[in-house]
Amino acid sequence: MVLITLLSLFSFPGDGEQKIWFPHLDKLVHAGFHCGIVILGSLSFKKSGASLNTIFLGIFIFSALYGILIEFLQYVMPYGRAAEIWDVLANLTGASLGVLLIKKYFSRIGKLK
Q: What is the Cα–Cα distance from 72 to 45, expressed in whole angstroms?
């Protein structure tokens, strides 16, 4: 998580060059990362004894606040990164997708037992 935070905040030489042409690829990366946070976080807290809905909500809120914090820090720090509302929306979309996918996974696991 620390590595992702650092990569999100600092600009690197050649960072503006786009080697792969795919419109809005960064938004897909945002969504994929936050989807992964929710899925992996939910799986790691499953055995904690808390209800699944509490786990899903907690991980979703963590993911959303983490994404907003990163965008805020990009806005206030002078390292050449720009904050975008579209990044926040991509983060929330990815987290929501993660909740839907992990709920579907747990519902299928319950049916198999």
A: 28
Spatial separation of the C-alpha atoms in residues 71 and 63, rounded to whole Å: 12
Residue linked to tokens 């004894």: 49
pLDDT digits (tens, 9 = 90+) for 61-78: 999 999 999 999 988 887
Distance between CA atoms of residues 105 and 97, nearest Å: 12
**What is the gyration radius of the CA atoms in the chain, in angstroms?**
16
Query: What whole-number distance in Å separates Cα of residue 102 and Cα of residue 100?
Result: 6
- Model pTM score: 0.81
- Asked if residue 77 lies in contact with residue 9, where contact means CB atoms within 8 angstroms, the answer is yes
The gap from C-alpha 2 to its chain's centroid, in whole angstroms, comes to 14
